[in-house]
Write a structure and sequence with these properties.
The chain has 481 residues and is an alpha+beta fold. The chain has three domains: 99 residues, Rossmann fold, CATH 3.40.50.20; 72 residues, Dna Ligase, domain 1; 242 residues, D-amino Acid Aminotransferase, Chain A, domain 1 (2-Layer Sandwich). 34% of the residues lie in helices and 23% in strands. Strands 3-2-1-4-5 form a five-stranded parallel beta sheet, with helices on both faces. A four-stranded antiparallel beta sheet has the order 6-9-7-8, sandwiched between helices. A four-stranded antiparallel beta sheet has the order 11-10-15-16, with helices on both faces. A hairpin with a 2-residue loop joins strand 12 and strand 13. The radius of gyration is 23 Å and the shape is globular.
C-alpha cells in the first residue's frame, strides 16, 4: 500500500541533515529540521523549510524518541528520516513511528532489532549459505573468560572480541594473547553496556590483514532487491573508517559473488529500504559475512558517484510504498570514487579533536569530479558537544589514476584556516606507494606510521586570507604597529 509523504522530519543534525534536506526538496517535499540549543545557529536549520527546538541537549535530546515523535507531530510531518548515528539503528524509533501512524524512512522495527544483534545476523548468513568467520558464540556472563579460553584452544590467536549489539566499528577489540584477553573482557563488557545498553560479548577468529568490503543494497516492499556495487572501507583507525573507495578493488569474479551473497542475504532476511551488507575478504580472496548496517552509510556518496543513483531519494520512495524504478541490469558502475572525511582533528595527536576553534578562512575546491557534503563555513565554530566532521570530500574519476590526481588537486586547493584538519594526512596518503598500487587492508595505517610524519604547510593565499580575517575581526592591522 502506498502512503504519500508531504513533509519529512529530519531526525539528525549537521552534514547528514543537510544531505537529507536536499533529497527531500528534490522529491518536491518539505523538510523540518530539529535542533538542540548548541545547534541553534547550525547550517542544517537554514537548509530546511522550518525547524523545531527539542531541548537544551547536548546530544541527549537527539537521542530522545519521545521528543522526536513529538516534533514530527507538532510540525505535521508524515515521515521521519533518521540519517546515520543517533537513533538511526534504534529499533524503538521505528516501533514508535509505527505506533503513532508515522512513516519511518528505513527498515522496520523487527529488522533493525534482529539484524542489530550480531549473533542473529550471523545465523541468517549461515542459513543463506554465506561463509561466516569461525566463532560467534555469546560468552556466558558467569564465566566469560573461561568460555573465551576454550574458544582460543580451538582457534588460536588472534581473536576478535565483539559487542553483540555493536555497530559502526565500535565495540571491537583485537586480542593477541591470554593477558590481553583477561584484561580486556571486563572493560569491553562495561563499554558495551554503556554504549549499546547490552553488555554481552562474543568472539570470532581473527583474520590477518583482511579487506573490509561492503555492498550497498536497495530493497522495496514488493520483493525486489538490487545491489549498487561494492565499497572498500579497509583504511581504518581502530576499526573506524577513514577512507572509502568505490568500487572495491577486487577481481570481478569475487565482487560478483559478494554482491550476489548480499542480495541473497537481504532477501532471506526480508529486508526493506537501503542497507549495507559488510564482509571481510582474506588474502586468498575468501570472503566472510561480517554484519549488516540497517541505515544510510556515511560513505553512500561514493556509490552515488559511480552509479548516478540518489540513494536517499530511493529511501523516501520505498518508504512511501513505491516499487523500485531500477532493475539490476540498469545499475552500471562507471569509474572510481573516493571519500575523504575532512575532520577538525589533529592526526599527529592521535586524531585529537580541535573542538572550540573557529574556522577563520574556508575556501573549498571545485572542478570536475568534486562533491562536497558538509556543514562548515567561514566563521564556523567547531562544537565541543558533537563530532568533528567538517565536510566529506568525494572525488570521481574515469579511472583510478584520474581519481587520484583530482583528489590531490582538490586537497591542495582546500583552504581551512583555524583548526588543524585531516587534509595533510590525506595528502601524504595519496603519495604513498602501497596505496597507489592498491595494496591496502585493515592494518594499512598500522604499517605506515610515516603517514603522520608531515609538516603542516600554510600556503601564501591562506596566510593572506588569515590576515584579512584578523584585520576584519579586530578592525585594524595588529601587525602594522
Amino acid at each position: 500500500m502506498e502512503r504519500k509523504i508531504r513533509k519529512v522530519l529530519v531526525a539528525n543534525r549537521g552534514e547528514i541533515a543537510i544531505r537529507i534536506c536536499r533529497a527531500v526538496h528534490e522529491e518536491g517535499l518539505k523538510a523540518v529540521a530539529i535542533y538542540e540549543t548548541p545547534d541553534q545557529e547550525s547550517r542544517h536549520l537554514r537548509e530546511a523549510d522550518e525547524s523545531i527546538w527539542i531541548g537544551d541537549g547536548p546530544v541527549k535530546d537527539y537521542l530522545n524518541i519521545d521528543k522526536i515523535i513529538w516534533a514530527a507531530k507538532k510540525t505535521c510531518c508524515e515521515a521521519i528520516h533518521p540519517g546515520y548515528g543517533f537513533l538511526a539503528e534504534n529499533p524503538f524509533l521505528a516501533k514508535a513511528c509505527e505506533e503513532e501512524g508515522l512513516i519511518f524512512i528505513g527498515p522496520d522495527y523487527k529488522s533493525i532489532k534482529d539484524l542489530g544483534d550480531k549473533t542473529i545476523a550471523r545465523s541468517i548468513a549461515e542459513s543463506a549459505g554465506i561463509p561466516v568467520i569461525p566463532g560467534g558464540n555469546i560468552l556466558s556472563e558467569g564465566d566469560p573468560t573461561g568460555d573465551a579460553l576454550k574458544f582460543v584452544e580451538k582457534s588460536g590467536y588472534p581473536i576478535m572480541l565483539k559487542a553483540v549489539a555493536g555497530g559502526g566499528g565500535r565495540g571491537i577489540r583485537k586480542i593477541n594473547n591470554e593477558e590481553e584477553l583477561k584484561s580486556q573482557i571486563p572493560i569491553a563488557q562495561k563499554e558495551a553496556k554503556s554504549a549499546f545498553g547490552d553488555g554481552r560479548l562474543y568472539l570470532e577468529k581473527g583474520i590477518e590483514r583482511p579487506r573490509h568490503i561492503e555492498v550497498q543494497i536497495l530493497a522495496d516492499n514488493h520483493g525486489k532487491v538490487i545491489h549498487l556495487g561494492t565499497r572498500d572501507c579497509s583504511i581504518q583507525r581502530r576499526h573506524q573508517k577513514l577512507v572509502e573507495i568505490a568500487p572495491a578493488l577486487l577481481d570481478k569474479e569475487i565482487q560478483d559473488k559478494i554482491c550476489e551473497a548480499a542480495v541473497r542475504y537481504a532477501q532471506i532476511a526480508g529486508y526493506r529500504n537501503a542497507g549495507t551488507v559488510e564482509f571481510l575478504v582474506d588474502q586468498e580472496n575468501n570472503f566472510y559475512f561480517l554484519e549488516i548496517n540497517t541505515r544510510l552509510q556515511v560513505e553512500h556518496t561514493v556509490t552515488e558517484l559511480i552509479t548516478g543513483i540518489d540513494i536517499v531519494r530511493r529511501q523516501i520512495r520505498i518508504a512511501e510504498g513505491i516499487p523500485l524504478d531500477i532493475d539490476q541490469e540498469d545499475v552500471v558502475l562507471k569509474g572510481n570514487a573516493i571519500e575523504l572525511r575532512i575532520n577538525a582533528e589533529d592526526p599527529q595527536r592521535d586524531f585529537a579533536p580541535e573542538s572550540g576553534k573557529t574556522v577563520l578562512v574556508y575556501q573549498s575546491p571545485g572542478g570536475p569530479g568534486i562533491r562536497l557534503d558538509g556543514i562548515v563555513y567561514q566563521g564556523y565554530n567547531i562544537p565541543r558537544e558533537y563530532d568533528s566532521l567538517l565536510v566529506k570530500l568525494s572525488v570521481y574519476g574515469f579511472d583510478w589514476d584520474e581519481m587520484i590526481s583530482r583528489a590531490r588537486r582538490a586537497l591542495k586547493t582546500f583552504i581551512i584556516v583555524g583548526p588543524k584538519t585531516t587534509i595533510p594526512f590525506y595528502l601524504r596518503l595519496l603519495e604513498e606507494k602501497e596505496f597507489l598500487e592498491k595494496k591496502f587492508d585493515t592494518e594499512y595505517i598500522d604499517r605506515h606510521p610515516e603517514l603522520f610524519d608531515y609538516k603542516p604547510l600554510e600556503r601564501e593565499e591562506a596566510k593572506i586570507a588569515k590576515l584579512i580575517s584578523i584585520i576584519h575581526h579586530k578592525k585594524y592591522n595588529p601587525f602594522s604597529m
